Amino acid sequence: MDCIFCKIVKGEIPCYKVYEDEDFIAFMDINPINNGHVLVIPKKHSELVSGLDKNILSKIMPLAEKIGSAIRKSGIKCEGMNFEIFDGKTAGQEVPHVHLHLIPRFSEDGYEHKYPAGYCDPNTRERLEKIAEQIRIAF
Ligand code: 5GP
Ligand code: ZN
Question: What is the pTM of this model?
Fold first, then answer.
């Protein structure tokens, strides 16, 4: 499979490794948003979170928290941290192998999210119960 992160898992292309166990590898993002930007990936390929085994799903957040704590303790500038997964191309996913970004944040680091037109529209609240019901039915 022509997946760049699978190649990293297999050691076919190099990475700056932070952590490895039988299920996961964590390494430095090649284009860090801030110093200390780490990617945590399951070794077994899945493009989307929904394709991950339950076992992997249950382990990924505890592991991300541990690595995040290590980043905070390391002396790297880190006043806060973004834990981000872009799930699907439309959500901004560029590499189609699940990866969790750990991005150290500090004030005025220039990393911003854009919000759509209509964000904070006063009519939004009227839609919330209907949408919550749609999700409850689908659950
Ligand atoms: P996303 O798919 O969530 O948009 O982001 C993919 C991330 O993977 C980017 O932050 C990008 O810099 C990183 N990346 C892409 N190719 C490589 C690579 O070959 N090695 C490493 N270490 N990071 C990569
Ligand atoms: Zn892959």
Answer: 0.96
